Amino acid sequence: MVDIVMKFGGTSVADAARIRASAALVAAEAATGAAVAVVVSAMAGETDRLIALAEQLGGGLGEDESDVILSSGEQVSSALMALALKEKGLKAQSFQAWQSAIWVDGAPGSARISGFDTAAVEAAAKAGVIPVFAGFQGIDAAGRVRTLGRGGTDLSAVAIAAALGARCDIYTDVDGVYTTDPRIEPKAQRIDAISHDEMLELAAQGAKVLQTRSAEMAKASNVPLRVLSSFAEPGTAIGTRVEDESRIAERRIVSGVAYTRDQARIVLLGASDRPAVAAEIFGALADVDIGVDMIVQGRARDAGTVNIEFSVDRRELDRAMSVMETAHGDAREIIHETDLAKVSVVGLGLNRRADVARILFRALGAKGIDVKVIATSEIRISALIANDAVENAVRALHSAYGLDDRAGGG
Amino acid sequence: MVDIVMKFGGTSVADAARIRASAALVAAEAATGAAVAVVVSAMAGETDRLIALAEQLGGGLGEDESDVILSSGEQVSSALMALALKEKGLKAQSFQAWQSAIWVDGAPGSARISGFDTAAVEAAAKAGVIPVFAGFQGIDAAGRVRTLGRGGTDLSAVAIAAALGARCDIYTDVDGVYTTDPRIEPKAQRIDAISHDEMLELAAQGAKVLQTRSAEMAKASNVPLRVLSSFAEPGTAIGTRVEDESRIAERRIVSGVAYTRDQARIVLLGASDRPAVAAEIFGALADVDIGVDMIVQGRARDAGTVNIEFSVDRRELDRAMSVMETAHGDAREIIHETDLAKVSVVGLGLNRRADVARILFRALGAKGIDVKVIATSEIRISALIANDAVENAVRALHSAYGLDDRAGGG
C-alpha cells in the first residue's frame, strides 16, 4: 500500500518555511503516483530544549517521564507536517506511536522497535491519506511512551518501511553519502550507490550521515534506502542509493574513507598465555557494555606470556581500566594511551585485493604517520593513528585508494 | 481510591520553580494521608506559542492537527510534574488522555468529555502512584486527540473528580472567589463558601476565576470544589469552597457582583404580535449558536405590534444582525446599540427579598448610571449599562448589597 517512506530530520522541519519546503518534496513524490508515508524528527533544537527542561526537574535521558517530554517534539512536528500537506491540497494525518501502534522493548531513552501494526496506517493510505508518523518513539508493553535514542527517527523510518515493504528515503541536510568527509577532503565525491554492508561499515567507522543502528536495520530487513537533501528543489535531488549488493552494477574496490577521533588503547604486557585469558578480559568488558575494537594478541618477551592490546572509545577508558583491576590475565604491566584516532577504508572489493594493507602502510608512511595497530574485516581495513594525524591520513588514503579523481557515478 | 483531585493552571506550572512549588502542595496533601491525583494545564504561554506555530501552517483552533499540537503542552507539563513529585520522593506517573482513557465527543478545539475509564488510574493509585493527568484533552471514537477549549483543564479536573468520587481543588493564581473583582473594588472580600448555583451564576456573568462549563459540570455532578492559590505555602491556603447548598451553614443574601463588558443590544420596534414571533427570532439565533441574554418584550406604539429587545455579546452583533434580515417578525425598524456592559448581583437569598430590584435601581441611580434593561433569575439580578460605567456600578452594587464591610467568613 505504501511505496516510499520519506523521512525528514530536524533541519528539514526546523521552522514553518522548512516544513513547507519538505512538504513540497512529499507533494512532488505523490504527484508521480507513488503512495507515500512520512516520518519526521522534532524541529531542530527542540529535543535539546525539552531534555534541558526535564533536567531542571531531575529527569535525564533514560527516565520514563523524560521520554514523555521528548516525544512531544515529534508529536508537534508530525502535526505541523500534516498541516503543511493539507495546505498543498493533499489529505494527511499525523500518527503518534500509540495510534500507529509502533511497539518497543527496552529501557527509556534507548528502546528497540519490536513490532508495528500496519492496519491503521494501511487503512489511511487506502483512503488516500498520507500518514505522517512521529518518529523516535514507540509504546512498550506497559503502555508507556519510549524513545529510541539519538538518530531514532531514522530507525522509525526504516522499521516502518520494512513493515510496509516500502523504500525508505532519508531526507537530510547533505545531499548523500560521500567518499569521505568533505570538510577534510574537498575532493570527496558523492557516492551514487553503495551496498548495505558498506554503508554499515562506513556508519560504524564514523560516517555521520546515517546512524549505525539504522544501517544495521536496513541491512537486516533489506530495505532499500536513499539519502537525499531536503534543501534541493522537488524532483532534482539525486542522493545516494543504499541497496542490496546484487543491485549495484559497478562494483568498486573502495567506497569510502571514514574516521573516528578520540580512541584509546590499552595494552596488557606479559599476560598469562592460558586459552581462557582473552575470554576473561573481553567478557568482563562486555559485561559492563564497553565496546572493544582492534584487538591484537602477540607473543611476549617472557616464555608462557602474551601481550594483549585493544582500543576503546576515549570516554570509556576510565571504566575499562577499572575492569582491568580484576580482569587482567596476570599481566606484568598494563599501560594505556590516549589521543588516538581510527581511520578506515571500506569497500566491497577489499577482500579481493592482496595489496590493500600495503597501500595503506605506504600511503600513511609517506606522510610520516605512525600506524599503531591495524585491523581488517572482509570489506574494511582500519588503522589506529594519532588524533592529530586524522586530516592528513584521510586525504592520503582518499588519494591512495583512487577516490580523488573518480567520477561520482556508481 | 482517590480523595482529592488537585488541578494546577498555567501560572502554577509556568517554570521549574513553579512546578516544584506546586509539587510541594501535592506532597503536603499526600502527607496528610489523602490519596491524591493531579491534573495540569500547559505551562503559561505554551498554548499560545503552540497555536501560533499551527497558524503558520494554516492550522487554527478547531483543526484536527492543531489539537495534536496543543495537547503536547499538557503532555510536557504532566511529565514535568511527575518528575517534580519523584524528586520529592513520591511515586508518580503522567497519564495522557489515550492512557487514562478520557473519551470525548465533538469538534476539535471544543470537545466534550463523554467518559473516563478509571481502571488504569485506580490501579496506579492503589500502588501508591500519584497519577498526573494532562488536562484539556481527550480521545474521540476515531482515536484522535481532541482538546476541550479554553479553561478545558478545569473541565478535565472536575470530570476526573466526578468519576473518582473525589473532591476537586482548583489551584490558581488568586486565593479564591471574591465578592467582586478586587482590581475594581479593593473592598472585595474572599468568599469562604458558596453554592454550586451561585458559582455557576457568577461564572456565567463574568467572574473569571472558574469557567462556566466547569461550574456547570461541578454542579451537575455535585463535585465539591475548592478554589485556592498555588502561591501559598503548603498547608496555609484557605480559598473558597464551592459545594452543595445544604452544606453551607450561613446563607448570605448576596454572594457577589460580576460583570461582563462588551455587550450589544438589538431592538426590534413594532414587530408583529403573533405568538410565534419570539420563537422564530430566537430559534434562528440559536440555530447559528448565538447566545441571547436579557430578553424584554413589551407592547409597542402601534396596535397589534410589540417591541422585542435582547442583548448579545458584542462579537456576535454582526452575525446576529444578519440573522435579523430573515427572522425579523415584520418589525418596523431594527436598531442596535453597542458599548454596553452587564453587571450582575448573585445570591441564594435574592429570591426571598422583595426590594432587590429597588436596591439596584437606587444604587445605580445615585451614581447617575442609566439602566437600559434589567433581568432577574432565582438567584441573580442583572442590569445592562454603558461600558464606561462598569467600575462605578460594581462599586455601587458591592456597597449597596452590604458586601463592603462583611467579614470574609461563610
How does this model look, in words?
The first copy, chain A, has 410 residues and is α/β, with parallel strands linked by helices. Chain A has 2 domains: 4-173, Acetylglutamate kinase-like (Carbamate kinase, 3-Layer(aba) Sandwich), CATH 3.40.1160.10; 257-400, VC0802-like. Chain A contains 12 helices and 18 strands. Chain A has helices spanning 16-31, 46-56, 64-87, 97-100, 119-126, 152-164, 196-204, 212-220, 277-287, 317-324, 356-366, 390-400, and strands spanning 4-8, 36-40, 92-95, 102-105, 112-116, 130-134, 137-139, 145-147, 167-172, 193-195, 225-229, 240-243, 256-272, 293-299, 305-313, 333-346, 373-377, 380-386. In chain A, the strands form 4 sheets. An 8-stranded mixed sheet of chain A has the order 3-6-2-1-9-11-12-10, with helices on both faces. A 6-stranded antiparallel sheet of chain A has the order 14-15-13-16-18-17. In chain A, strands 4-5 form a two-stranded antiparallel ribbon. In chain A, helix 1 links the parallel strand 1 and strand 2 (36-40). In chain A, helix 2 runs antiparallel to helix 3, helix 6 (152-164) runs parallel beside helix 8 (212-220) and helix 7 packs antiparallel against helix 8 (212-220). The first copy, chain A, starts with a strand and ends in a 10-residue tail after the last helix. The model of chain A has no long low-confidence stretch (mean pLDDT 92). The interface between A and B is large, with 36 and 36 residues.
